[in-house]
Design a protein that fits this description.
The structure is a single chain. The protein is 42% helix and 23% strand. The protein is α/β, with parallel strands linked by helices. Helix 1 runs parallel beside helix 2 and helix 7 packs parallel to helix 8. The longest helix is centred in the first third of the chain and has 14 residues. The protein is globular, with a radius of gyration of 16 Å.
């Protein structure tokens, strides 16, 4: 199984969820590795993924493109006057996918973040035949952002497997207490919940494995 872990926005906890899923899957016997095909800004996310997979694959495959500017890949490439080599991303993914049962591909920001002027993470998911897991931060606005992201994924013909509501900060607003239940009611795909400070994603991994 190969998945794109995308978000409704930046700062929703994609890396935390990706790393937790990698550790859980590997701990339960799944041959699983991670990938951050395009990293912009600091490479802490890449390091976290490498550590989660016990450095089972080299960094150049886990992260084929590293842009130093903390911006969308397209903006960073313009600022740095770089032409992004998407063939290197496809080649790295194929090497990982041919050697492992699962590849978790962490995106940058949201699903429609531009990689180039004419290419975004929806296109990447289609090219690599990735199903989609959407991570949303449990905060005011989560319902709208999540529904828009699910709609964008489905409109692009992508297999949207799951939404993960991530409690990135302690509950303090009325909307936070209701977002999970309302999204379960509004969406026709599974919605999972990760509590603040928790990294137990067993239910998420088991659901993806078809064990729930």
């Amino acid at each position: 199984m190969n998945l794109l872990i995308t978000g409704t926005d930046t700062g929703v906890g994609k890396t935390v969820i990706t790393v937790a899923m990698l550790k859980n899957a590997r701990g339960s016997g799944i041959d699983c590795v991670g990938m951050k095909p395009i990293c912009s800004g600091g490479n802490e996310d890449v390091i976290a993924i490498l550590e989660a997979i016990d450095h089972a694959e080299p960094e150049h495959l886990v992260n084929p493109i590293w842009l130093r500017t903390p911006a969308s890949p397209y903006a960073a490439s313009v600022i740095e006057d770089r032409l992004l080599d998407m063939d290197s991303v496809r080649d790295a993914f194929q090497q990982l996918a041919s050697s492992h049962d699962w590849v978790l591909v962490e995106g940058a920001g949201g699903l429609t973040v531009p990689i180039t002027r004419e290419y975004d993470f929806r296109d990447l998911a289609r090219d690599l035949h990735l199903s989609v897991v959407i991570v949303a931060a449990n905060r005011l606005g989560a319902i709208n952002h999540t529904r828009l992201t699910v709609e964008a994924a489905k409109s692009a013909g992508l297999d949207c497997r799951m939404v993960v509501i991530n409690e990135v900060e302690p509950l303090s607003e009325p909307s936070q207490a209701s977002n999970y239940g309302l999204l379960q009611d509004l969406l026709d795909i599974p919605v999972m919940y990760v509590e603040h400070g928790q990294t137990d994603v067993t239910e998420i991994v088991n659901h993806l494995r078809g064990k729930l």
